[in-house]
Amino acid sequence: MTIDEQLEYLRKGCAEIISEKELRSRLEECARKRRPLRVKAGFDPTAPDLHLGHTVLLRKMKHFQDLGHTAVFLIGDVTGLIGDPSGRNTTRPPMTREQILENAETYKKQVFKILDPDRTEIRFNSEWLLELGTLGMIELCSQTTIAQLLEREDFTQRYRQGKPISLHEFLYPLTQAQDSVALKADVELGGTDQKFNLLLGREFQATHGQPRQIVATVPILEGLDGTQKMSKSLGNYIGVDEPPEVMYRKVMQASDELMFRYYELLTDLSLREIAKLKQGAADGSQHPMDLKHDLAARIVTDFHGREGASKGGDAFRRVVQDKQVPDSMPEMSLPVEMRGASVIRLDKLLRAAGLASSGAEANRKLRENSVSVNGAKHRDMSYEVPEGVSELVLKLGKRWARVRLPS
RNA sequence: GGACGGGUGGCCGAGCGGUCAAAGGCAACAGACUGUAAAUCUGUCGGGCUACGCCCUACGAAGGUUCGAAUCCUUCCCCGUCCA
Questions:
Q1: SS3 A71
Q2: Interatomic separation, CA of residue A367 and C1' of nucleotide B52, rounded (Å)
């Protein structure tokens, strides 16, 4: 590939590259010296469950790997070792070495669904940050100013609104910048919300006499609600480890608008191809639902292969569109304390089956006429089991459970 | 160290002695509608109890005043602003 083609390839799906000119000359330089670029991205050790939001970044890293460069997957374990107090409502207990390594293993398993293991270096920032010591830490702090840190938008905002900012949050960009120095990163990738931290890395590298890393930001992926960023705690995520049926269904739940966003950030289709699809949906020549099926199939294929995609698609058509009973659902036996009675308390059973978080909730749902038993809506909390029935198939909203009755 | 303001349900935010399981909004869940969605409309939204009623736990924490406290008092913890 020519340098121009490489640039083109790397640019797709990036929000911003600082700067393209530097990236070009760095690519040229590396081609000359036959040295791969070191492309860094940092991850939090406390949340080892990756979702599609993370994969936007990972896909970009993969693109660098495709061109022969090295991905440096940095696990920010120092925060984990301290017991990060951010969030404030609950102080998280410090994680042990073992837990962190365990999380790292989980990461690997998930990350290598996208990244090429042979071109990936996994590192922990405790390697160098713990060695800094107090003097090193103070020295680190002397490299920037409060005014500069306050330039970061979320800090400014919080400061203006009188919301607390703990000191360690100020330290975080510093350590991240120091990571770039320690790793001699050529490129650092991050979400657009990371821009400030990434840029600080450039400055720190410069004061250490290193060439400044190129910063590439990727857009933050919106979650299934279409507005907030995808995150596990908001519940609007699609996890990379989720079973194909679930993944497929979740993609189908995205709004039409969001669908094109996902096309852009989660598939390898070119912008031109995506524009064509959009046009098709607008003029009616393409049904949006078909496009969404196609998207779901593409995404599921990335993580579960073609087989997973067709499995997910079949399940979706059967269960959601045709309202059939899914062929797999959580199963359980009738709880011991409920056996022997001729009448079953549905509210208690729904809770036991995990379809409702409490008896009160189950009861509400019953009254809302949201519960069906063996295909028929039922709104009374007591249920008389008909003759010859050996199992109860419960449905509450999208969720199902099968309860085997003692014979 | 001092002065002042504040801590309410997942979040925001009213309430400032009873009628408060706590207005309103957001989020969430469910139902209708649909293309699966989105939008819209409707219902629900602490927990327990065979229950349209009773009980328990909740308004930073612990005590107290009162027939009665999210609301008043005391102490403590936490956050913010300003002054040192």
A1: strand
A2: 11
Whether residue A372 contacts residue A379, with contact meaning beta carbons closer than 8 Å, is answered with no
Instruction: Quickly state the pLDDT bin for A300 (edges 50, 70, 90).
Output: very high
| Cis peptide bond upstream of A19, omega within 30 | yes
Query: For the CA atoms of A296, A301, A303, A309, what is the dihedral angle to 10 degrees?
Result: 70
Structure tokens that stand for A73 in this block = 């997957």
Q: Kindly determine whether the C-beta of residue A225 is less than 7 Å away from any atom of nucleic acid strand B.
A: yes
| Angle in degrees, CA A356, A251, A266, rounded to 5 | 140
- Going by the DSSP 8-state scheme, the letter that residue A269 receives in this structure is -
Is pLDDT above 60 for A87?
A: no
Asked if the Cβ of residue A120 lies within 7 A of any atom of strand B, the reply is no
A346: Cα separation from own chain's centroid: 36
Going A276 to A278 to A282 to A286, the CA torsion angle's sign is positive
Q: Which of residues 232-291 of A touch strand B (CB under 7 A)?
A: 234-236, 252-257, 288-289
Q: In this structure, is the CB of residue A162 within 7 Å of any atom belonging to strand B?
A: yes
ipTM: 0.84
Largest CA distance in chain A: 82
Task: Report pLDDT digits (tens) over A378-403.
Answer: 888 888 888 888 888 999 988 899 99
C-alpha A351: how far from chain center: 29
* Count of C-beta atoms within a 10 Å radius of residue A19: 12
Nucleic strand B under 7 Å from the C-beta of A342: no
Encoding tokens for residue A117? 């293991």
CA triplet A237, A242, A246: central angle to 5 degrees? Answer: 80
- Locate all alpha helices (DSSP H) within A13-143, ordered by sequence: 20-33, 52-66, 77-82, 97-111, 126-141
Question: Please, are residues A202 and A72 in contact by the beta-carbon 8 Å criterion?
Answer: no
